[in-house]
Design goal:
Layout (H helix, E strand, L loop, with lengths): L1 E5 L3 H12 L3 E5 L3 H10 L1 E6 L2 E6 L2 E3 L2 H5 L4 E3 L7 H8 L8 E3 L7 H10 L7 E5 L4 E7 L2 E7 L3 E6 L4 H11 L3 E3 L3 H5 L4 H11 L1 H6 L12 H20 L10 H4 L12 H8 L12 H21 L4 H14 L20 H10 L4
Helix pairs in contact: 4-5, 8-10, 8-13, 13-14
Amino acid sequence: MKIAVIGGGHGCHAAAADLAEQGHQVRFWRRDGAAQAAIRDAGAIRLIDAAGERSVPLHCVTTDLAEALDGVELVLSPLPATAQVALAGDLAPHLVSGQVLFIPPGTLGAIPMARIIRQEGNNSELAFVEAGTLPYLARLRAPDTVAISARATRLPAGVYPARLSEQAQAAVAGAFPAIEPVADVLDAALMNAGPIIHPPLILMNAGPLQHFDAWDIHNEGTQPAIRAVTDALDRERVALRGALAYGGPHFPLADHYDDARPEWMYGNAAHESLTDSGDWREHIDLASHRYMREDVAMGMALMVSIADWAGVACPVAKGLLAMGSAICGEDFRHGPRTWEALGLAALSRAELRVLLHEGEAP
């Protein structure tokens, strides 16, 4: 399959290497040519995983979006939700009908991205796919080297608009066989593990994060008190899913931490692989880190705003959102990815279902 991998993050490098090793024709685009230089010069990425370390050749390494997107079937961009609006404007001149954009996990970015692409004058029929998590637990160890600690073994994913689900799911499954279809993109957004696992970790570890030069919030930062908050927060997510008539499996986060429970998105022992790697022992700036900007300011704000619209209580989520707002000096409840900011708060449930299935008219 011809696949464009768009972006320069950990997950983007992991995807480029992993998909190329599977035999796909991968075109790897990054805006920053200087940061991409080592990979471009070698024509390959160094990949480290349980099988060892090796060099994986890529079909194309480029800073030219037109070159990256020309003729590809799947456009994969596991960039943070904070980058989606700008990315949509960049992609708009080059996308054509039939292409599938996979933006895991997504945070309901499919809706604003689709709008921006149309506003730029591109009325192509495009399908957007979001998932419950990134396909990889991965970290860059050098500009040309990425380490993968785990790959998703179950990846719940939904499509916007849902009427294109069959073809879009098939395209994504060609690259990621672990895909498990769900009803639509909102179903997938309410599977997103980031706004459940990361806010308690970054907010309840705020003191150590500001005190120590490096701190592993997934290791010593995951204590019983924090896990208790995470479980309570996840129960609110599942209650919201139920109120919106989304059925199971709900992929409760408790499954990630307990191998005796049903297999979670990354399979058994994934948490141990993550902590054993040492790759998440890092410096985290509270105000700017992805866990705060994507998972609290956007993902958790989205969840709280949907719960308000649906009449579902979520006191833990609201408390954590208020903590994040206080730390950063911003009101996250009125941020860019809330139900109100997306223009969805005035819809009835029936109108929402139509929108999710059909998409918005050009």
